[in-house]
Each structure stands twice: as C-alpha cells, then as structure tokens.
Design brief:
It is built from 7 helices and no strands. It has about 180 residues and is mostly helical.
Length: about 180
C-alpha cells in the first residue's frame, strides 16, 4: 500500500511539474522571440559602442592623437568581434525577461511589436534613445563642474589611503 501511495504521489507530482516546465519553456521561447524581434544582438553592440565612444571622447580630451584613437577603435572592434558571442549572453538576457515578465506579459509585448506601431518602435527607438543620451550628456556637461567641486575634496581626502591600498581585487592594473 505504501508503494502504491508513493507511485500515485510521484505520478501526481509529475502532472504538476510538467505544466510548470512547459510554461517555463513557453516563457523562454517568448522572451527569445522578443529579444530577436527587438534586434537584441545589434542593440547590445550599439550599447557597447556607445560606452566606447564615451571612452574615446575622454581620451581625445586628454590629448590622444587621432592615430591612437583609430588604433584603439580597431583593437576594440576586433576584440568584440572575436570574443563577444551573443549566443552565450542571450540565455542570461532571457532569464531577465522571464524573471521580470509573466508569460501573458511577454505575449502582449510580442503582439505589440508585431503591429505596425511596434515595428516602427523597433526601428525608431534606438535612435530616439541615442538622441536622448546625447541631450542628457550635453545637459550634464554644463553641470559637471559643480559635481567636480563636490568630489575633489573627498577624493583628495582619501587619495593617500587609496594609493596605499593599491588596486582593488580584480581591478585592471593602471598604466599598462
């Protein structure tokens, strides 16, 4: 009788688990579709390039000659193309979507992106976001002096401690 009860329990558990696993697979498929629809791979590269452009501007402001800028761009682009594999990061992105959205949410989002307005959003939002970032950058540029005025005494106060401690574990070495 105990054996029969255990078999019935396991069978019932299997019936409960299978829909959960199916739902997870369905959610993951929807999240993957959404990432693909919204050009996730291209968006990831654009985001990386945007960050690198900020680094490049900083280097230019510090006197890096154009030849050095060109060499850095070429090296970073070559590194990205050979080392960054979207297929390796996409499952982690899917995990985020599945964590933050229900299956019904994902269905509705996908349905929206399949509409003409959704298609327009896919095509237009990257440039809207770029333009917005440029507006924000330009806006904050005029205010950065006040931040520097506030941070300089703090950095000065702790500079000796920072130098004595050396680089943090895992931090890239400076000056190399």
């Amino acid at each position: 009788m105990k054996r029969l009860s255990a078999v019935i329990f396991l069978a019932a558990l299997g019936l409960l688990i299978k829909p959960v696993l199916a739902d997870d697979a369905s959610e993951r498929a929807l999240a993957t579709k959404l990432i693909d629809m919204t050009n996730g791979k291209e968006a990831m590269r654009a985001g990386f390039d945007s960050v690198m452009n900020g680094v490049i501007v900083n280097l230019q402001h510090h006197g890096m000659p154009q030849e050095g800028i060109d060499a850095i761009r070429a090296a970073v682009s070559k590194w990205y193309d050979s080392e960054i594999k979207f297929g390796e990061i996409q499952p982690k992105m899917v995990d985020i979507y599945v964590k933050d959205f229900t299956e019904d949410d994902l269905k509705q989002i996908v349905a929206f992106y399949e509409t003409p307005v959704g298609q327009k959003a896919i095509k237009t939002l990257p440039s809207v976001m770029r333009e917005g970032a440029m507006v924000a950058q330009e806006y904050t540029k005029g205010k950065i002096t006040t931040l520097n005025d506030q941070l300089t005494p703090i950095l000065t106060k702790y500079r000796d401690q920072m130098q004595a401690a050396g680089p943090a574990a895992g931090a890239p070495p400076s000056g190399n």
